[in-house]
Amino acid sequence: MMTDNHTILYVEDDADFAELNICWFTQQGYNIVYARDGIEAVEAFGNTAPDIVLLDIMMPGMSGFEVMEHIRKTDDRIPVIFLTSLADSQTVIKGLELGAYDYIRKDAELPEIEARIKSVLARTGERVHTIHITENSRIDKGHMAIVVHGEAHKTGYRILKLLQLLLQQKNRLVQRDYLTSAIWGDNNINGDIYLNQAIGTLRRILSADKDVKLKSYRNAGIILETDK
Predict the structure, then answer these.
(1) What's domain 133-225's architecture?
(2) I need a labelling partner for 59 at 20 to 30 A (CA). Which of 28, 198, 199, 202 fits?
C-alpha cells in the first residue's frame, strides 16, 4: 500500500474511538501524531509539521474550529479534514468556510475515511510535497531535498523537519530545547550537538538565497528570517 509515509495529526478527545482509528491508519502505513484535545493539537502542530490534519470539533478547552483558525494563521497550505459527529448543515458550512478540505461523519466506515484522506492528499499533492521558503527556494519533500535557485540539495528527514519547524514560526525565536525534543527526542543527550550540526548544514544550503537568514543563539534559540 502506498502512503508515501504521510504524517497525520489526529485530534480526538474520545480515547476509545481514537485508538481504533490510530490502529487502522498505522496498519495502512501512515505516521500518526495524536492529540487528545485542541490545546494539545496546537502544540503538536507546531512540533511535528504534519502532511494533513484530521480534526474533531467538540473538544474540551478548545474547539476544532478554534484549532482550525490557529492553524490557518500559521499555515494556509496544510489540508485539514473535520471528522466529527456534528452533521447539521450550518456546522458543515462553517467548517468548510474556515478552509477545511473535507467534512466526514464519525460513523463513516474506516476504508471510506482513508479513501477520502487519500483523495485530499492527491488533490493537494504539490502543496504537501512542496513547501516554499522564498521565491528562490523550497522544500521538496517528495525527493527529500531543499531546492535553492533550481539546484536540489539532498538531505535527511531530520534536516527537513528542522527547516519545516523553523518555517512554521518564521521570524520568531524558536527555543533550542523545543527543537531538539521534537526532532531527536527528550532523552537524547547529544541533541544539542546534532542541532548545531543541522543548523550548519541548513546555513550552507540556504546561503545562496539572500532572502533567508538563519540566526542561532547559543542559550536561547533559532530564528529563520525571511520577508518572502
Answers:
(1) Orthogonal Bundle (1.10)
(2) 28
